[in-house]
Amino acid sequence: MRYDDVSARNVAVAKQPGDTIAEGLGEMLALAGLGVWELEVASGRIRCNEPCLNHCGAARSADISREWLLGDLPRQIGANPDAARDGQTFEFERMSPDGCHWVLIRGICWFNDDNTMRSATGFTLDLTSRKQHEFELDALANAERSAREHSDALARTMDHFIAAVSHELRSPLNAIVSWAELLQLAMEPSNVARAGEAIRRNGRQLSHMVDDLLDSGAIATGKLSVNLQPVDLGALAAFVAEDVRKLAQHKGLQLHAADISPCLVLADESRIRQVIWNLLANAVKFTDAGEVEVSVKATRDFAVMTVRDTGRGIAPEAVSLIFDRFQQIAPHASGRVGGLGLGLWLARHIISLHGGSIDVASDGPGCGATFTVKLPLASTAR
To answer: What is the pTM of this model?
Structure first.
């Protein structure tokens, strides 16, 4: 059977006029949406029916590309001519040249005596609906996989968080109970002073952790608010530095707070105190030797507080994670460091509520870190 060029809605005209079986078959193929085509390789002429034109996004058969129909099949045959044989079949799935259809192209090849391709004939089938469904299923599977991975990561994070909370809350509680029991057994003035200081220090540590836990929940639900009042950031930083000094001295560190200037900002004093405490306590926690320094100065529009330490530093790839919730970035060789992984995350959100910013810089592991907080001065804040 040979197919003539399509015209009007004719599908395929049999070579013998009046061949009603062939005409009926052509009509049935068209009705089923099956495109039929034939290619004469020597002339490059393509004959096809109307559904094939629609699949190819073409107005006439001459617009259909031979390369689009055959793909790289001629190159493959040329590279291995011994494999050429009459009746060789091929199949491709590709997008139509106009980008409107996904099309299945299936055909059969015929060869000359010298193993060059003489002709090919076959059919096309519109796969657009099936492909769209496949894409939707793939997208759904990817979304489900991502959601499952995210859920697993959250579960692991929560397990780690619960373990950290249990450990961190237990440590100061055990210290408070132990020193309280010592007070009952021995009321010597020296023991009373040591016990009182230990209870106070661990009690404050416990109080800060509970505050962080409560505030993290308020931030997660969008319920954390600030009450802005004029606050001297310099005086507040100096006050908190004295409160943290005992922690630094306990580790043999120097805490410097001399370079502090008065800077009036509009802030929630308790929230900013929480930020300063977290930054200084964090610096002490991750510094094994050397010093921690806090400074406050005023620029044209901002009060700038800097907390610098000579501690373990931050690897370049970890800088972008430092303010994430439940993250505690430290060199693996340094072992576990206490904490809930909430301090910096809380600090970023609190400073954001004040219209300020917080940044970190480090030259890498072992080179310390510097945190910089900027808050609008009261004269410029709105």
So the answer is: 0.51
